[in-house]
Design brief:
11 helices, Trna Endonuclease, Chain: A, domain 1, five-stranded mixed sheet, globular, six-stranded mixed sheet, alpha+beta, 25% strand, 409 residues
């Protein structure tokens, strides 16, 4: 398998590609810009977008490194999923920094070893089956409906104490997803193999990435929190799909645009001490919002603060570009549309550090104030969260201004 090593937003060296390989990469979820290399007839320059990670497609193994370090990236992803509040350096820091899937494999194996040190967690599962003998309770209604009075087999319901429970199934599914890739680290492959062997009696379940089940934790299973959290992270961002015909694609991918928005939203909620019903994301708005009359031109702001049915703050989170430092007009127009539609005095536009300078804009004839802030993602999670505190202060100031105008009206 040929390897292609790329870096987020950075044009690559020329890579020779067949027509089939070029088309498969173009149809993949990598969001690559593919351009013919100057002076070459069968080579191409590949420029990744905001998607990072690894993907195996056809005979190609594509690795896209993020701009920030892998430990920082995974710490942000874990925090956005509510896994932990302070970075644990043991999880993702290794003497030699491997690729993103390999880092996750090593971290998952280490977390699994800690969790399984007491033995696999067991629990009770309820089964409903037709058996030749009575076990547990007879389901009389089903017996009469399905067996028409025949004594055997017996429709029963019983509880079984087993290690084939949801927590172990999530771990096994994550191990299988990463194990299905050609990991570049021999240690990662060996460690995953050992964990897979411990889970031999656990069912392998295909969990959909967008609707992963939650595991409730208590004092009996608290030691499983880390390994289950990592497993859910892996399953959420695993990419398995068909591309062209029989060409298969498998990998682990993170869209930095989505991750940045989710992290900013969760971190602000924690800092402001409000719930998801107060500081809402674009996926959980209380009602449809439109810019035009008669319900036309719908909009979905990334961030909005709701006091009951009244919005008192609006914001947007943008992770993009690498060298352009001025704020694109389109982003400011979008924020202006949010503030206008929600009848607010202004809004906040949050960029990743280095994407834009902090600034403020007073809009002519509209009385709107558009503020721009930058959040530095380099450094430890605690350092990033310290910057979020300053963002929270600006959110409070904009919200107080909106509430003051509402009272004056």
């Amino acid at each position: 398998m040929r390897r292609i090593n790329l870096r987020e937003y950075k044009p690559s060296q020329p890579y020779p590609l067949s027509v089939q390989e070029r088309d498969a990469l173009g149809d993949s979820p990598l969001s690559l810009t593919i351009e013919p290399a100057l002076g070459k007839s069968d080579a191409y320059t590949l420029t990744p977008g905001s998607t990072v990670g690894a993907l195996e497609i056809g005979g190609l193994s594509v690795l896209i490194q993020p701009k920030i370090g892998i430990p920082q990236l995974l710490s942000l992803a874990c925090y956005a999923m509510g896994m932990f509040k302070h970075q644990d350096r043991r999880w993702f820091d290794f003497e030699e920094q491997p690729a993103l899937p390999d880092t996750l494999a090593l971290a998952l194996a280490a977390a699994a070893r800690r969790a399984f040190a007491r033995g696999l967690l067991h629990g009770y599962l309820t089964h409903e089956e037709a058996l030749p003998t009575v076990r547990g309770r007879i389901r009389f209604d089903d017996q009469l409906r399905r067996r028409f009075g025949l004594p055997l087999p017996v429709e029963v319901r019983y509880d079984e104490f087993t290690d084939d429970i949801l927590a172990n199934r999530l771990v096994k599914a994550a191990v299988a997803r990463l194990g299905g890739m050609r990991l570049r680290s021999p240690k990662a492959r060996r460690d995953l193999g050992r964990i897979a062997g411990l889970l031999d009696n656990v069912s392998l379940v295909a969990f959909p990435p967008n609707s992963l089940p939650q595991v409730s934790f208590d004092r009996l299973n608290q030691h499983y929190r880390d390994v289950v959290g990592l497993s859910r992270l892996i399953l959420r961002h695993s990419a398995f799909q068909s591309s062209r015909g029989t060409v298969r694609a498998a990998g682990f991918l993170i869209d930095m645009n989505t991750l940045f928005q989710e992290f900013v939203t969760q971190a602000l909620r924690d800092e402001l001490r409000v719930s998801e019903r107060v500081l809402r994301s674009d996926q959980d708005l209380p009602h449809r919002i439109t810019l035009a009359m008669q319900g036309r031109l719908p909009i979905k702001p990334d961030l909005s603060w709701w006091d009951g049915g009244v919005c008192t703050f609006v914001g947007d989170a943008k992770y993009k570009r690498t060298q352009v430092r001025s704020v694109p007009n389109a982003d400011l127009y979008q924020l202006l549309a949010y503030a206008t539609a929600l009848d607010l005095p202004g809004g906040l536009l949050v960029y990743a550090q280095g994407e834009a300078d902090s600034s403020k804009y007073e809009v002519r004839h509209a009385g709107k104030r558009l503020e721009v802030a930058a959040l530095d993602l380099d450094g430890t999670l605690d350092e990033v969260l310290a910057s979020v505190k300053r963002l929270a202060q600006r959110v409070h100031a904009l919200r107080d201004q909106a509430r003051h105008l509402n009272r004056a009206a």
